[in-house]
Write a structure and sequence with these properties.
The structure is a single chain. With about 220 residues, the chain is an alpha/beta fold. It has 2 domains: about 1-120, Rossmann fold; about 125-215, Arc Repressor Mutant, subunit A. Helices cover about 40% and strands about 20% of the residues. The protein contains 8 helices and 11 strands. The strands form 3 sheets. Strands 2-1-3-4-5 form a 5-stranded parallel sheet, with helices on both faces. The chain has a 4-stranded antiparallel sheet with strand order 6-7-8-9, covered by helices on one side. It is elongated. The chain starts with a strand and ends with a strand. The relative contact order is 0.12. This is Response regulator transcription factor. It holds the Pfam family Trans_reg_C. Keywords: DNA-binding, Phosphoprotein.
Length: about 220
């Protein structure tokens, strides 16, 4: 899953990046509001973690611009401002959640995962799609109750497909979700899917010629 972190404090950014990467996210980092606004306008992120006190353009202005431009990705605000009135202002500007500093990285990871589940229409941390079950907290997968031994990249591919909303995902979309760029050769994604199919079974991941890949039972 691809995440935009907008944070100008280098220490906080480094700690949050470590925690989110350990949880399986691909991180893009913006250190000021102008950069954040441009990145969010060009890229379809799965979730954005947005600080309010930013140089060049404040976080609330960035968020309002995104929502005004129709950008609908989920956003969780980070801020040292903990007053209820400022939380309300953030939510009314289009934020989906609000976390006051200081915070524990584990809480942020849990909130980010919850936002992604809700945006994909899933309320629970354990997702079941057809024969496949994903435990998003433990980053574990089973097929018909049998545990799978997956590499981090293989798990992230399944996770991306599980949150695809039942539509086929192209090799370019999967590459962005896994690596943060769409420059990975389509043959590399095809090889990864083939390797994963050997572990999950041939009927779990479907191919729609000309469109991409999806999980069986996701529609």
């Amino acid at each position: 899953m691809r995440l935009l972190l907008v944070e100008d404090d280098a220490t906080i950014a480094a700690g949050v990046t470590r925690a989110l990467e350990a949880a399986g996210f691909v991180i893009d980092l913006a250190r000021d509001g102008e950069d954040a606004w441009a990145r969010g306008g060009d890229e379809d992120y799965d979730v954005v973690v947005l600080d309010l006190g930013l140089p060049r353009l404040d976080g609330l202005s960035v968020l309002k611009r995104w929502r005004g431009d129709g950008r609908g990705f989920p956003v969780i605000i980070l801020s040292a401002r903990g007053q209820w009135s400022e939380k309300v202002e953030g939510i009314e500007a289009g934020a989906d959640d609000y976390l006051a500093k200081p915070f524990e990285p584990a809480e942020l990871v849990a909130r980010v995962r919850a936002l992604i589940r809700r945006s994909a229409g899933h309320a629970e941390a354990v997702l079941t799609i057809g024969d496949l079950t994903l435990d998003t907290r433990r980053m574990q997968a089973t097929v018909r109750g049998a545990a799978l031994s997956l590499s981090p990249l293989e798990y992230r591919l399944l996770h991306a497909l599980a949150h695809g909303g039942g539509r086929p995902m192209s090799a370019g979309e999967l590459s962005e979700s896994l690596h943060g760029v769409d420059a990975v050769d389509a043959n590399a994604i095809e090889a990864l899917v083939a390797r994963l199919r050997r572990k999950v079974g041939s009927g779990v991941i479907e191919t729609r010629r000309g469109f991409g890949y999806l999980l069986a039972g996701a529609e």
